Amino acid sequence: MINIDVKKFIKLIIPSFLIKNINKLFKREIKFEGSYKNWRAADNKSLGYDSSIIFNKAKKSFLKVINKEAKYERDSVLFYSEKINSPLIKILKKKQDKKKICLKVLDFGGSFGSTYFQNYSILSDKNKFHWSIIEQKKIVNFAKRFKLPCNLFFFSSIKSYIKKHNPDIVLFSSVVQYLEFPYKIINYFIKKKIKNIIFLKTPFSKTKELIKIQIVPKNIYDASYPIRIFNEKFFLKLFKDNNYKIIPSPFINEQIDNIFFKNFIFKLNNYDN
User: pLDDT by residue (tens digit) across 37-49?
Assistant: First the structure.
């Protein structure tokens, strides 16, 4: 029996504009609505990111993963075959090879281990990778009820993590835009002089910073929450002013309407790894 990746096949034979229209018809597209004065105003008009709807569906998907009924989940959507994030793994392996000891990665807002389990066959090597996730307390408490891989750890605060570890890399994978106070978190790691900071799928605007509400497609879950669209110039200047340089990124940027979802890798200057 031939193993065919149906989604890839559909993308090959159906024009992208037609796929977009089909998704729109069946309400499977991500929407960004409104323009709000501040975070609280947007939060009051949406269900919020800590909605029980999101948590309950995500934990059910996590159970499937931890019981080996699925390979991994992302935004509660289950995947049944391994799909390595090649650009990310290439970066991590390169840094681990240079370091020659276990690479400590802090996956900030990493849910129930979406990225870890997606790349499990590589990241589960305890001699090469030490993977920690900072998440909401309810996610951490639920995850800790189960027998986890020996190099996967959950923390409910930066403080509790930093007491035990000093990360080689901090990874923000599509997460800072959903934080009420993102600069407080980012500046904390900058002041700690973390050597490598990676941002994946982060929304930027060419104009001023915007706060909108993101409407999640109905086929994932019925939810909405505030999202911050960063001003790219200001964001990059923050790192430049703090002695970080941008490393060329192997990731593919995307665009939805006038919002650019970009990927940035920042490395502290005068640091060779």
Answer: 999 999 999 987 7
